[in-house]
Amino acid sequence: MWLGLVSVIKGLWRWLRKLENAALVIVIAAFILCCFTDLYHLCPCGISFTQNGETRASLYDSLLQSLSTVLALIVSLLFVAVQLAAQAYTPRVIKKHFESFHFIFVSLVFVFSILWLIFIAGDHPYFLNKLAFIKADLAVMLSSFSFVLLIPLVIRTYKLMRPKYLLEELVDDISEKDFERIYRDARPKQFEHVRLQESKLEAKLQPIFDIVRGCTLKGDIQTVREAFENMHERLGRMIRITDDEFLSEQIAKTLGQRMLEIGLFANHEGKIELTVDTLGLFENFFEDYEKATKRASATILYSRLKEVKQDFDRKYTQSRYPKQYRQITVMFCRCRSILASIVT
Q1: For the residues of 14-41, what is the DSSP string, one character each?
Q2: DSSP result, 48-83
Q3: Where in the chain are the domains?
Q4: pLDDT of res. 46
Q5: Is the Cβ–Cβ distance between 255 and 232 less than 8 Å?
Q6: Whole-angstrom Cα distance, residue 139 to residue 325?
Q7: Residue 157: C-alpha distances to residues 59, 81, 102 (Å)
Q8: Which residues are CB-contacts of 322 (< 8 A; sequence separation ≥ 6)?
Q9: SS3 271
């Protein structure tokens, strides 16, 4: 029970550490505070709005037009931004924008505010009596709340346009349960179930490695390193938490295979520095989680590692690339020794 509570608190803290989430919480808290306290009436314009009927009607009409215009403008601009991100990285990031809590929440608040101004903001005694406990002009507060909510949405959209933060979001979507449904919860002869869960896990992994491949083509070593470091931290945490040795082995094997695939891809594209860097990250991960890898997985990984080295040897000669050849050979020997110690 206590471990579960601690895990929830840690997860909440990780969520609040993101700027857009902290801004969203602050905006919601300010809205609630203004609605149920006398803070709203400290503003002279708030008093005048409620005292002058003509001014209030004019204000409501202006707010209605402003909300409709801003909502249409924001959705249009967001579509353009997401389209650019999809072209730059992968089309799979579209879901990350439009299925996010921030976008859905802001859209619902805007729509509710517009409906409130259209149907409820007039002098309807029923609604006014029912909402007498709210000390602020709710139409004005909802409109203001809608506009201010754009701040965390813009922050999040801007961050997701950058590969570093986009990769963090994608990696955070991967959970231990994604692996459990394949390797632990599956029963014998449930091939369709296993295939379905594998496709769901692949749908989460594929956008990450689409971005990594794109960064590999551009020679963006830093982004590739950050992507694997994020996966190292995320999947490493799963391995540390789980007490299922078979599950931890499959998690380690999945990341190892993906790393070597990127190493092989970097070879084909002539990005030797990325091949060296990927092998270094591979070595670091399996040094930390050597005990999580068993003989069968180590054998599979060794064959993939050998394939990377053989491909490099075919494409690059020692006489032409002496420095890179030496680096690859050293990294290959280190990775091979780690896997060999597991196999033996």
Answers
A1: HHHTSHHHHHHHHHHHHHHHHHHSGGGG
A2: HHHH-HHHHHHHHHHHHHHHHHHHHHHHHHHHHHHH
A3: 16-160, 168-343
A4: 47
A5: yes
A6: 69
A7: 30, 8, 10
A8: none
A9: coil
Q: Look at the block and give the residue holding tokens 């089309």.
A: 91
166: its two tokens: 């986009």
Please state, in angstroms and rounded to a whole number, the distance separating the CA atoms of residues 298 and 293. Answer: 6
Residue 114: enclosing H or E segment and its boundaries?
A: helix 101-115
Check residue 4 and give its pLDDT: 54
Tens-place pLDDT, residues 272-331: 888 888 888 888 888 887 777 777 788 888 888 888 888 888 887 777 778 878 888 888
Return the SS3 of 292: helix
How long, in residues, is the chain? 344
CB 260 within 8 A of CB 304: yes
Phi–psi pair at 204, nearest 5 degrees:
-85, -35
Residue recorded with tokens 């029963």: 187
Other C-beta atoms closer than 10 Å to the C-beta of 177 total 12
Quote the pTM value: 0.71
Nearest-Å Rg of the Cα atoms of the chain is 27
> In the predicted model, is pLDDT for residue 15 greater than 70?
no
Q: How far, CA to CA in Å, does 170 sit from each of 70, 89, 93, 155?
A: 29, 12, 9, 17
Per the rule left: phi > 0, alpha: psi between -120 and 50, beta: everything else, 162 is beta
Q: Distances from the Cα of 248 to the Cαs of 231, 240, 279, in angstroms?
A: 14, 8, 21
Dist CA 259 CA 54 (whole Å): 67
Q: Reply yes or no on whether the pLDDT at 44 is more than 50.
A: no
Cα within 13 Å of Cα(157), Cβ side: 21
For 275, residues 6+ apart whose C-beta sits below 8 A from its C-beta are: 263, 266, 267, 308, 312, 328
User: Tokens 């922050």 map to which residue?
Assistant: 155
| Lowest-confidence pick of 111-125, 129-143, 198-212, 214-228 | 129-143
* Rounded alpha-carbon distances, angstroms, from residue 147 to 19, 118, 144, 339: 18, 18, 5, 56
Q: How far apart are CA 305 and CA 333, in angstroms?
A: 10
